[in-house]
Amino acid sequence: MTSLRGFLLWLDRPIEQVTSRTISQYIDRLMSRRLKPKTINCHLQRIREFYHYLIQEEGLPIPNPVKSGYSLRTPKPLAKHLRDQQVDLLLETLKAPRDRAIFMLMLRSGLRVSEVANITLGDIDLRGQRLLIRDAKWAKDRLVYISDDATKALIDYLKIRPPSKTDKAFLNQKGPFGGQPLSIRGIQKRMEYYTKKDGA
Prior knowledge:
CATH topology of the largest domain: hpI Integrase, Chain A
Strand order of the largest sheet: 1-4-3-2
Structural class: alpha+beta
Number of domains: 2
Distance between the termini: 53 Å
CATH class of the largest domain: Mainly Alpha
Radius of gyration: 20 Å
Largest sheet: 4 strands, mixed
Strand content: 5-15%
CATH architecture of the largest domain: Orthogonal Bundle
Shape: elongated
Number of strands: 4
Helix content: 40-55%
């Protein structure tokens, strides 16, 4: 009840008019109070259950603004088997803005190759320093917050990203597939290239 009371007191509109955007704004509010992601996720779960009750039991004809699996995921620390010296060597090797942005997202935020490949421009919130990862593990969406250095790398890449009809963030830059989305295998090949280059 405490979670719901806080949400309803904060809300500035009828409960029928709450959207996913409203929920994102409320997440920002909770984060400004320095609540931990686990605590924020508990708030979201209670709000989702509240709307589930309104829809299923009270017959309110609205979609649930808190999607199943909608939760925060904080950046993961670097893998323990990577020494600082190894990470520094890898980052020094990453000169291309696109590749640096890709690797920084994987290193700092723990994203899978498939998740990076599927990021669209609309999923990126640079001001909030977060990404919406769609259809992640178990087909659930989640928010991922990105570190300052990963955000900078992403900004540097987006400044030089070539125009494209696709909204996928990461593109092939050369050859017959230039301007088309970079595939999972394409990212894996870049990983293999840099692994050989830095002698890992």
